Amino acid sequence: MKDIKIGNILIGTTHKPFIIAEMSGNHNQSLERALNLVDAAAEAGVSALKLQTYTADTITMNNGFTIKEKDSLRHGKTLYQLYEQAHTPREWHKEIMERAKEKWILCFSTPFDESAVDFLESLDVPAYKIASFENNYFGLLKRIAQTGKPVIMSTWMTNISDIDKAVRVLRENWCKDIILLKCTSTYPASPENTNISTIPHMAETFKCHVGLSDHTMGIWVSVASVALWARVIEKHFTLRRADGWVDSTFSLEPEELKSLVIETERAFLSIGEVNYGIQDSEQNSLKHKRSIYINKSIKKWEKFSKDNIRVIRPWDGISPEYYDLLIWKTANSDMEGWKPLTRENIL
Question: At what angle do helices 138-145 and 160-172 cross, to 10 degrees?
């Protein structure tokens, strides 16, 4: 699969993971906090910061159902109340994106309706994210695809035929660069229901790069996914979970976000290629392998035996694999003890 370029960053199997810090509603309706989140994301070393672009009125109606998730800060709120609390005001977008540019990280967003796409186009975002809840909203998919920008689409609660429909809509509307994200729609998700083995299957099925939108606690599911060829990782983050707000319970703190960047890159670097034998970096360790040594003085014409040769470290003599063949061979010269046995010592 070809590399995909977002901004000045290449995404592909030979490039380190593209880490997206999802602000979501963790700005707690404070622009100052939102800008502090930009700074924290940049300090952690992420590739991009992501916003969400909607209003309560563009996403739901003001009398919908009440959220019943127990042990959640969302519990008891209507959808309208949740989105009123969590949305990022449009008048903040430009300042947040300019701050991200100053900090040398990319910034883009998830639009939730066509008007949001038009707004984000006016800000010249480098890419678009499609939320799982919106991946059957084909009018939105068509509008996003027609921008010609790269698209990252989450796939939770979507069976394989529905993913295929969404991908077809994007491709039929001239979207050339698609990245799918494996995801689980629980907050938080558990490692057991994340099923990252789906990642390489999804990549093969849809012939595109695949990543992970990770709602588990901590960073290790994301790190593991890199070994399965995830090259885009999205995680919600906040300044401190104790500050509360709609997404805080399953969001990373800045120190954890930095660890995510470091450890996913280490996982990527460790994959390498199929390799056997001795690498250049291992040459100095060869001395710690065993070889055959003379363990007492030997006279010329004397036979080698279990009494006068031993298999010990370091690796300076003949390989131990030849030990049985050397027994009762003859020494061709006088030799001092505790010296490596070499082919030149054998008659």
Answer: 40
Percentage of the chain beyond pLDDT 90 is 83
From-to residues of CATH 3.90.1210.10 in the chain:
280-345
Topology of domain 4-271, CATH? TIM Barrel (3.20.20)
Q: What is the pLDDT of residue 197?
A: 97
Average pLDDT of the residues of the chain: 94
User: Are the CB atoms for 278 and 323 separated by under 8 Å?
Assistant: no
Taking the CB of residue 136, how many other CB atoms lie within 10 A of it?
14
Asked if residue 316 lies in contact with residue 340, where contact means CB atoms within 8 angstroms, the answer is yes
Place of tokens 């979970």: 241
pLDDT tens by residue, 192-223: 999 999 999 999 999 999 999 999 999 999 99
Global confidence as pTM: 0.88
Whole-angstrom distance, CA of residue 27 vs CA of residue 245: 9
- Say if CB 222 and CB 264 are below 8 A apart: yes
Q: Where in the chain is the domain with CATH 3.20.20.70?
A: 4-271
Nearest to 257 by CA among 280, 281, 287, 233: 233
- Specify the CATH number of the domain 280-345: 3.90.1210.10
Question: Could you tell me the CA-to-CA distances from 190 to 66, 184, 187, 271 in Å, in that order?
Answer: 24, 9, 9, 25
Whether 287 contacts 314, CB under 8 Å: yes
What DSSP element (H or E) covers 297?
Answer: none
- Residue with tokens 């300019």, as numbered in its chain: 98
Q: Give the type of residue at 112.
A: F
Secondary structure class of 140 (helix, strand, coil): helix
Q: What is the pLDDT of residue 68?
A: 63
CB 220 within 8 A of CB 226: no
Of all residues in the chain, the percent with pLDDT exceeding 70 is 97
Whose tokens are 């998830």? That residue is: 110
Cβ count within 10 A of residue 105: 23
Mean pLDDT score, 292-313: 96
Instruction: Give the separation between CA 97 and CA 347, rounded to whole angstroms.
Output: 79
Place of tokens 């065993």: 290
Q: How many residues does the chain have?
A: 347
